[in-house]
Amino acid sequence: MARRRARMRAATGEHTVQQWLEKIELHAGCCFYCGEQKPLTVDHDVPITRGGSNDITNILPACLSCNSKKGVRTAREYLALRAA
Fold first, then answer.
1. What residues have CB less than 8 Å from 40, skipping those under 6 apart?
2. Based on the number of CB atoms within 10 Å of its own CB, is 77 exposed (0-12), middle (13-18) or buried (19 or more)?
3. Are the C-beta atoms of residues 34 and 40 closer than 8 Å to each other?
4. CA distance linking residue 75 with residue 24, whole number of Å
5. Domain limits for position 7
6. Residue 54 maps to which CATH number?
7. What is the pTM of this model?
């Protein structure tokens, strides 16, 4: 947990709660990956561990299940894996 917080602090960019809520609304309250309406978590399109930012442009709403399965893949990599 401490390592994750350190990475988050070192990441460039930031977003507000209002921006996050607008992003959820933009996706109609659904997970970006599976499309289901479940409790959503903040997911980074390009993971911070791979150089992604914490800017709202790099944030996607994801259910916990999809976010966990995605791991350190980019959104594009995970979607390709799901389609295979």
1. 24, 29, 31, 61, 62, 63
2. middle
3. no
4. 16
5. 2-83
6. 1.10.30.50
7. 0.86
Q: pLDDT per position in the chain (84 positions), as tens? A: 545 655 666 788 999 999 999 999 999 999 999 999 999 999 999 999 999 999 999 999 999 999 999 999 999 999 999 998
Structural domains counted in the chain: 1
How far, in whole angstroms, is CA 23 from its chain's centroid?
11
Query: Measuring CA to CA, which residue among 69, 64, 67, 58 is closest to residue 8?
Result: 58
Helix, strand or coil, per DSSP, at residue 46: coil
CA distance 16 to 69: 26
